[in-house]
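Form 7-S
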Amino acid sequence: MTRHKHFDTIVAWAEGRPVQIKNANGEWMDLGEPMQWNVAHEYRIKPEPIVKLLNMYYDTEQGLCVDAGRDFNHNLRVEIDPNDDSIISVEYVRKADG
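Output:
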């Protein structure tokens, strides 16, 4: 017996993971409650956002700077949409008192 084309996605959806469907424009959209799993459609498990930890600081010569270095001093948490690299959110992470 052959497994359904979307078997892995159906199982992930049944386990409560978010699923997306590709629309006619080729864009992925969140899927609510599918009435059927059409083999002609494309489905996927919604990818997790990419999280980047960055350091924002002021330099007297260059002004306001942001970089990914200095990993001991990260003060920004940025979530990026893996579909189009757009920024979902930016959070300032306050340094712990030391």
